[in-house]
Amino acid sequence: MRSIAVAGRRIGEGAPAFVIAEIGTGHEGDLVRARGLVDAAAEAGADCAKFQAVFADEIIHPKTGDVPLPGGRISLYERFRSLERDRDFFRAVKEHTERSGLVFLCTPFGPRSAAILHALGVDAYKIASPELNYTALIRQVAGYGRPIILSSGVSTLGDIERAVEAAGSETALLHCITAYPAPPEEYNLRLLPSLASLFGVTVGVSDHSLDPVLVPAACVAAGGTIVEKHLCLSRSDRGLDDPIALPPEEFRRMVKAVRLAELEGREATLERLGRDYGAARVEAVLGDGIKRLAPSEQANYRRTNRSLHALSFIAAGECLSEANLAVLRTEKLLRPGLSPELLSVILGKRTVRDIPAGEGILWEDLLST
């Protein structure tokens, strides 16, 4: 049976579905709020509360652009800066989570945040979809000897293969659509058994759709054993993911739907969902089982993912080094660069043209024509 063990719990075939409440940065940097979110997750029936260890410099360049928030547009980089917290914050959150009977899970985004989580002695790590191609980070985390849960939004089968290989044997894979919100009809849940068979891993779904029942229940019917969904106190709050997260009562409804699907089994669950949502819509959610980029995330490929970017202005003739380039998400304004796997190849190479600060590094920057 495919399974992993996290904090003494077996997750996978034959075990109850593992429900993750994705709190992310919804705490807004406030420890009291973080504890309140953990309490809400526990009361709603989650098995795990997951956070994000954000350090802006590990994720994006200051020139990435703005995001719209209730108070107006703000630099995404500065927004991430405002959410940075030290090891003591995450230690306190971890202790409260575990006192509440939940598994503490957290996402690192680079070497610094990964090292902090390692020092805290976490039981497992979660790698977000945009970092699926950041194999150096995955290998660092794998070296800590704990299970890794990978999200596979905005990815190809080749991307998943390289990530699973870097992660090692104690790995689970969450199918995901990197869109906010994600259309349920794009989830293609018949893919789950294929992913489990191809990669020999425990599978589930990281669900960004707004409905609390349809995708989570259909995931269990399709063979998924992990369900991750964002939790908020209110969708009107200021958290980056709050507009697509479930308030506590809706999260509780989701957990009940997951447990009912486990009791009913595949056929009864799909029949019930067909009555509630329409058979055609349920069939669309199940899809054809062929892995492809979903329509809503196609434009994000290579932009949400990691690539090699100039940290500062690099003049023609300069040597590329770890001081002037980094593995970052591109996002909306900047151009994507070369794959992170090519970092060791281009280090020490001289540029043949200027590279503006923040822009992706291309072969044309290194090769004379």
What does this entry look like structurally?
The protein has twelve helices and 14 strands. It is α/β, with parallel strands linked by helices and 369 residues long. Helix 1 runs parallel beside helix 3 (87-99), helix 8 runs parallel beside helix 9 and helix 10 (266-277) crosses helix 11. The termini are far apart.
Q: Determine the CATH topology of the largest domain.
A: TIM Barrel
Counting helices, strands and paired strands, the structural category is alpha/beta
**Poorly predicted segments:** none
Strand content: 15-25%
Give the class-level CATH name of the largest domain.
Answer: Alpha Beta
Key structural traits:
eight-stranded parallel beta sheet, 12 helices, two-stranded antiparallel sheet, globular, TIM Barrel, 369 residues, 2 domains, alpha/beta, Type Iii Antifreeze Protein Isoform Hplc 12, single chain
